[in-house]
Amino acid sequence: GAGVSQSPSNKVTEKGKDVELRCDPISGHTALYWYRQSLGQGLEFLIYFQGNSAPDKSGLPSDRFSAERTGGSVSTLTIQRTQQEDSAVYLCASSLNFGLRVDRETQYFGPGTRLLVL
Amino acid sequence: AQTVTQSQPEMSVQEAETVTLSCTYDTSESDYYLFWYKQPPSRQMILVIRQEAYKQQNATENRFSVNFQKAAKSFSLKISDSQLGDAAMYFCAYRSISNFGNEKLTFGTGTRLTIIP
Fold first, then answer.
1. Do the chains contact at B101 and A55, CB–CB below 8 Å?
2. B36 falls in which pLDDT band (50, 70, 90)?
3. Which of A13, A96, B48, B52 could hold B36 in an S-S bridge, CB 3.0 to 4.6 Å?
4. B43:A45 CB<8 A
């Protein structure tokens, strides 16, 4: 597709359940980012992938959060044993990060997944 | 660590008028990127404009322009001829120029812009 896509659009789960959020970046973008947007914390960085490796995972809030990227493309963010404070919008972005295009560092965002933990 | 401050939680402007949104940042780096993103109720973050710190010329994109004051660490967004479709949350963001582990965006807290018909 032309843009970053994320699924599901909305997810309601019960406290203690595991959830998986998916991100499909723009074709050819080598870098992928996950952010969390919540009322109390604003926009927070979670993790960054360059290819399939994660040079920066400093924003993951706890060991209940993990992410992987396969084939240099799709990424999955997994939250285990969800808590009510995990309720937020999870945004994914991608960027080229190489080459001569002037916008290679610009991050393009998906529509987000709204997670509600009951 | 870099910080980004948006001191105006809410702003409003009459349709067709001009409005300026403020952003200041703190960094010890000499080169970096600055961005303004727009987030309408649909939740999609949309890039409005970008500025490279090493460029002295202010970026412009149609009705959107910035006033980049590097010494003052200020990066304001001016919207001319405001339109109803400009109503959204606007976020200022900072990115290090380094490509070795510093690629994340640091965001301000946002300014909610209302357009009055």
1. yes
2. very high
3. B48
4. no
Give the residue from A24, A21, A18 showing the smallest Cα distance to A46: A21
Residues A65-93 have a mean pLDDT of 96
C-alpha–C-alpha distance, residues B39 and A35, integer Å: 14
Query: Which CA distances in Å does A67 have to A19, A54, A108, B100?
Result: 12, 9, 19, 20
- Mean pLDDT in residue range B89-98: 91
Closest Cα in chain B, distance from residue A89 (Å): 9
Which of A50, A89, A95 shows the shortest C-beta gap to B43? A89
Rounded to 5, what percent of chain A is helix, strand, coil?
5, 50, 45
CA A77 to chain centre: 6
Task: Give per-residue pLDDT as tens, B50-70.
Answer: 999 988 899 999 999 999 999
User: First and final CA of chain B: distance in angstroms?
Assistant: 41
* CA nearest to A53 within chain B: B101
